[in-house]
Amino acid sequence: MWADAAIAAVKSLVMLLLALNLTVLLLWVERKGSALIQDRIGANRANIFGGILPFNLGIVNTLIADPIKMFTKEDVIPAGADKLLHFFGPFLAVFPVLVTFAAVPFGDVLVIGGREINLQVAELNVGILYVLAMSGLSVYGVVLGGWATNSRWSLLGAIRGSAQMISYEIAMGLGLIGAILVFGTLDLQAIARAQGATIWGVIPAWGIIYQPLGFLIFLVAGIAETKRVPFDLPEGESELTSGYFTEYSGSKQATYMMSDFAEIVVVSALATTLFFGAWQVPYLARDGFHFPGGFALALPQVVVVVMQVASFVLKVLILCCFQILVRWSLPRYRYDQLMDLGWKTLLPLALANVLITAIVIVLAG
After folding, report:
1. What is the DSSP annotation of 226-248?
2. What are 33-51's pLDDT values in tens digits?
3. For the segment 296-346, what is each residue's pLDDT rounded down to a tens digit?
4. Which CA distances in Å does 185 have to 79, 102, 176, 180, 189?
5. Distances (CA, A) of 47 to 27, 28, 363
6. Which of 49-58, 110-119, 285-294 shows the lowest mean pLDDT across its residues?
């Protein structure tokens, strides 16, 4: 009993640290990435201790100095604001995002002392439903953030955000149904293991092979759920200052900003799990590599697990960088364009994808 509890605690800590570190790292990637796209230097260096330790690339400034500055600033609550809801708004924005990682598998099985440890925090046979439920809860943080501050600008951002998130959640959920039909399960770990097979003994049977349209629908809807350009109408920095969290400062503002980057990691992790083989490495089984043609290479089990976790992290990081590239490459939609894309384009495409996938599966037996 105590061993199971300790193992669960360690897995939770590993996944939480992985998510939080990727979230903070993305702040630096966005600064340097935007600088490269705009042909400027960007975050460069921060001289600390009088320049004795000159750290280049702006890593110290982005990953250490800025978080310390944000979390030590004064917490200002506007006059007329609801203090209780003002406190819970940022918490309800970031908490559902972080607990979503519990259902995401980051590896296969680790064997220690004859005990098999499934590298997934919560072993849920309805993992996709859990993910959709948690993503739906994050809208409460947006709504409370705009309502509790007693500001018309923040309220307008909250109204925009709630309408946008609810609209695109429908398309995102329908985009996942195609993958559910193909793999025949709601268990994310089972889907990850199913992608370890091969097509004709050569091509890895990843979800993107079976569901390219489903992936595009999920990715576009997922970017809209993160509320970032070209879907940043809830914040609208040039119109509403910071949208629904304009009246927040200090640690609460940092929490709202962190939730946006955490959502990027969640979308990338889910896309990796469902469409890019999750932790799978092509031709790598639990005992080593099995290449086409019969050639095999045995590897220690620990090495296999490390390669699987590294594969998962690398895929997630690539998709995160792609989302940041989109954020700094496309202009913002008008609000009518945003709604038209969700209801008149993504929703019909998602329904058509589900129908075609079901017909193909039935015909193929």
Report:
1. TT-TTS-TTT-HHHHTTGGGTT-
2. 888 888 887 776 655 555 5
3. 999 999 999 999 999 999 999 999 999 999 998 988 888 899 999 999 999
4. 51, 18, 11, 6, 10
5. 19, 17, 65
6. 49-58
Q: What is the tens place of the pLDDT at every residue in 131-182? A: 999 988 989 999 998 999 888 888 888 888 899 998 999 999 999 999 999 9
Residue 112 CA to chain centroid, in angstroms? 30
Alpha helices (H) along 58-151: 59-60, 66-72, 83-100, 127-137, 139-148
CA angle 184, 185, 186 (to 5 degrees): 145
Q: What are phi and psi of 122, to 5 degrees?
A: -115, 115
Please tell me the total number of residues recorded for the chain in this structure. 365
Asked if 296 and 288 touch (Cβ cutoff 8 Å), the reply is yes
Q: Which residues contact 295 (CB under 8 A, 6 or more apart)?
A: none
- Residue whose tokens read 């496309």: 330
At residue 348, the pLDDT reads 96
Residues 6+ apart with CB under 8 A from 126: 186, 187
Which tokens is 165 given? 């998130």
Please give the Cα distance from 267 to 140 (Å, whole number).
19
Cβ–Cβ < 8 Å for 157, 89: no
Amino acid code (one letter) for 335: Y
Q: Return the structure tokens found at 33.
A: 């990435």
Contact 21, 265 (CB under 8 A): no
Residues 147 and 320: their CA atoms lie apart, in Å, by 31
How many C-beta atoms surround the C-beta of residue 179 within 10 A?
A: 22
Radius of gyration of the chain (CA): 22
Question: What are the percentages of helix, strand and coil residues in the chain, rounded to 5?
Answer: 65, 10, 25
